[in-house]
Amino acid sequence: xxxxxxxxxxxxxxxxxxxxxxxxxxxxxxxxxxxxxxxxxxxxxxxxxxxxxxxxxxxxxxxxxxxxxxxxxxxxxxxxxxxxxxxxxxxxxxxxxxxxxxxxxxxxxxxxxxxxxxxxxxxxxxxxxxxxxxxxxxxxxxxxxxxxxxxxxxxxxxxxxxxxxxxxxxxxxxxxxxxxxxxxxxxxxxxxxxxxxxxxxxxxxxxxxxxxxxxxxxxxxxxxxxxxxxxxxxxxxxxxxxxxxxxxxxxxxxxxxxxxxxxxxxxxxxxxxxxxxxxxxxxxxxxxxxxxxxxxxxxxxxxxxxxxxxxxxxxxxxxxxxxxxxxxxxxxxxxxxxxxxxxxxxxxxxxxxxxxxxxxxxxxxxxxxxxxxxxxxxxxxxx
Length: 383
Hints:
Blueprint: H1 4-23, E1 29-30, H2 34-45, H3 51-69, E2 77-82, H4 88-95, H5 99-103, E3 104-107, H6 119-131, H7 133-136, E4 142-147, H8 162-173, E5 178-184, H9 185-195, H10 197-200, E6 204-206, H11 212-223, H12 232-247, H13 251-260, E7 262-265, H14 271-275, H15 277-280, H16 287-290, E8 294-295, H17 308-320, E9 323-324, H18 325-332, H19 336-348, E10 352-355, E11 358-361, H20 366-375
Parallel strand pairs: 2-5, 2-6, 3-4, 4-5
Antiparallel strand pairs: 1-7, 7-8, 9-11, 10-11
């Protein structure tokens, strides 16, 4: 039987906890108003991409170009691979600055390309690039053709990767140009399985995993708005290391995990913020409100219970990076009505983000979903 002293201690603790919640509710941490989170999300979106990413791409590209220019039977292409929730195309474009942009004739034929079920449309664009007189002229500048997002160039369906097959053959057979290609690692694994893409595009470079210090420096313009604390530098670095570990060094995952763990005391949430969202829509969050935000321990959000259809749907979403509902249904071979209902449930659960017609995964759920799909024998990529 339970000892009297232990029973008495438990009763006292339960009484104290109940009293603390009722007599001092303002000390309890709560989620900040949604408009504050949105303000910080926009600040993160305006950040330059991590220096480690752009520097890594620039160094890999310079080495690959030198080897190709020296005619040492080196590959005339370089593929940059990264996590499906990273904006690979944007990172690639941000890396093509400085000396690289001056020394090369950079052509971006698919800059505004959006996925289509018609593979011949992609083939037509590639043919035009290869046959254009403007690109055949002799010049001191050598031609760099950029394919910013290979995942936008295929759809997992019958005939959906014929354009990729045409592209890889075209690259191999025209050594006069160098190709820089961005792709998410899950799409790469799939394309390697169905059309052996790595046998044609042999030179591959993965984005590096960001360490705690790199994440700390990258997020500094956003996090510095929070209230300074004692030993801020040490605490911030320790916090960043925790983010790096949970996110596997993926910047977008780390940023979303950080956002999801911002908290405020209930007493510090002003009525004007919680009751008048319209007044804050087009103005910056005030320093007074921001200074009351607290970083709480980062954790991975739990996935909702997933059905088999949910898993196939989310796997296809990660293969394609971003995708419309219509194309998603086409890739799954299911009715759009069925896909719509499952998408809506996952949007309400916060797992899927919908921006206009494009669907994507909330990056905070990526680590958990990767484990979930791997445990269920889905083909996943290497990050």
